[in-house]
Design brief:
The chain is of the alpha/beta class and about 425 residues long. It has 14 helices and 13 strands. Among the domains are: about 50 residues, no CATH class; about 200 residues, 3-Layer(aba) Sandwich (Rossmann fold). Helix content is about 35%, strand content about 15%. The strands form three sheets. A six-stranded mixed sheet has the order 4-5-13-10-11-12, with helices on both faces. It has a four-stranded parallel sheet with strand order 8-7-6-9. α3 crosses α4 and α4 packs parallel to α5. The radius of gyration is 22 Å and the shape is globular. The protein binds pyridoxal-5'-phosphate and zinc ion.
């Protein structure tokens, strides 16, 4: 697996499996694996470059299929050491791909509709995938404190991963998040700091902290460990294809906060095609935002290549990033694959949460309301093809955003008598 071609840039002290180097997404400049995230030549984002040249397709497929029922079954395709499954981590992934026939009937989808339900992860959101990756990088680079700027779910995932792996954690969130997210982030015993400001303020603060002695020796999962963190989202693509019987879906609807997840799902699908694990045929990626924080869909609809920052105001707080780092790459992918980016109102988000719960027994957080709501809208507008195999992501658990469905409650309050029950008209 040692890559001849990148020997000059590899760092022999760091074993992150097939990861060979960091490479700039904009100019291709390569640097050794390390806790850096921006290109020194052009300030473009750094990404993991791999050496997969030694893999035989059938052998790789067998190795994956006999691996553990979590993301480490894909260790040969991730920046992690080969023995990663033996290390203390939260081991997320291999969540259910639910064939959503009731929802399909309601929405008129005939080509097969699936919900990839990531609420089944250890801290009940997709963020466990990216944090599990970042933790392995933090371990490799010798960090002992894990940190992040978070819209809520990430804070909980970092707290849990740090607790399990024996790291200290100190995480930063906007002070006014949902109670469910605050409790979920605090319960694991790390430090949790509320910042008076929105997510973009929290993120700016963390960038300053990284350059300061106060943040020295800290692994910020979504800042200086971002290239590693981001790769965790590839596992969503791998799992969806493997769970479909090593087939690409035709259409996939993905929520957008920073846009990292969407870009890495595309990267994961491209890798599976190149490795011969799935057939090479077209797929379309659709991005979903809430209207109250829709910088990417606004740019998409206006035909722009740049994303103008917005001040978020939506109940979909986990997606409320007004200045999304990967926004321009999301636009590229939506346009290249023939997809689209769309947004829905908070009212449509709530409706969609209830629709998914009522039809499939899945209680999604607001981000899941965004993807289901956008799916419904794109079907109605004829942008999504109802005759194609479609996968919708639910990335979080409704128990963390109970306020969104406040008012949903008792059908009746009765005395404990049969007469009283009959009077209520429910018999
Ligand atoms: C963080 C998050 C996302 C996606 O975030 P990106 O920054 O776009 O990768 C999606 N859903 C939920 C619930 C999240 O917490
Ligand atoms: Zn560069």
């Amino acid at each position: 697996m040692a890559a001849q071609t990148v020997a000059s840039t590899s760092n022999p002290a760091v074993d992150l499996g097939p990861a060979a180097a960091l490479s700039c997404r904009e100019c291709g400049h390569r640097v050794p694996l390390g806790p850096v995230f921006a290109c020194e030549e052009c300030f473009g984002p750094l990404e993991i470059a791999y050496d997969f040249s030694a893999y035989d397709t059938e052998e790789l497929r067998r190795r994956i299929e006999s691996g553990p029922a979590n993301i480490w079954r894909y260790a040969p395709l991730l920046p992690v050491p080969a023995d990663v499954a033996d290390k203390p981590n939260i081991n997320p992934g291999w969540t259910k791909l639910v064939k959503a026939d009731n929802l399909a009937r309601e929405l008129g989808v005939t080509g097969g509709l699936y919900v990839k339900d990531d609420s089944g992860n250890p801290t009940h959101s997709f963020k466990d995938r990216v944090v599990a990756q970042a933790l392995e990088a933090a371990r490799a680079f010798g960090f002992t404190t894990l940190s992040c700027s978070s819209t809520g779910n990430l804070a909980g995932a970092v707290g849990a991963a740090a607790a399990r792996a024996g790291f200290r954690s100190c995480v930063f969130i906007p002070h006014d998040l949902e109670q469910g997210k605050v409790v979920m982030a605090a319960v694991y015993g790390g430090e949790l700091v509320g910042i008076e400001g929105n997510y973009d303020d929290v993120n700016r603060f963390c960038s300053e902290l990284i350059g300061d002695p106060a943040g020295e020796g800290w692994g910020f999962v979504n800042v200086n460990l971002r290239p590693y963190y981001a790769e965790g989202s590839k596992t969503l693509a791998y799992e969806i294809c493997e769970q479909l019987g090593w087939r690409l879906p035709d259409q996939i609807v993905v929520p957008i906060a920073s846009g990292s997840q969407l870009t890495k799902i595309d990267k994961g699908l491209q890798e599976l095609i190149k490795l011969g694990l799935v057939e090479d045929r077209p797929y379309k990626i659709f991005g979903a935002q809430a209207e109250g924080c829709s910088p990417v869909s606004t740019a998409y609809k206006a035909g722009h290549d740049v994303v103008r920052p917005q001040k978020p105001d939506t109940i979909a707080k986990s997606l409320a990033i007004g200045n999304p780092a990967d926004g321009p790459y999301v636009l590229d992918i939506a346009r290249r694959t023939g997809g689209a980016v769309e947004d829905v109102t908070d009212e449509e988000v709530v409706d969609a949460i209830k629709l998914l719960a009522r039809t499939e027994g899945i209680f999604a957080e607001t981000a899941g309301g965004v993807t289901v709501g956008v799916t419904r809208k794109l079907l109605k507008d004829g942008v999504l093809d109802p005759a194609k195999t479609t996968v919708v992501l639910n990335t979080g658990d409704g128990l963390k955003t109970l306020d969104a469905v406040a008012g949903t409650g008792l059908s009746a309050t009765i005395r404990p008598t049969l007469d009283s029950f009959r009077e209520a008209g429910l018999a």
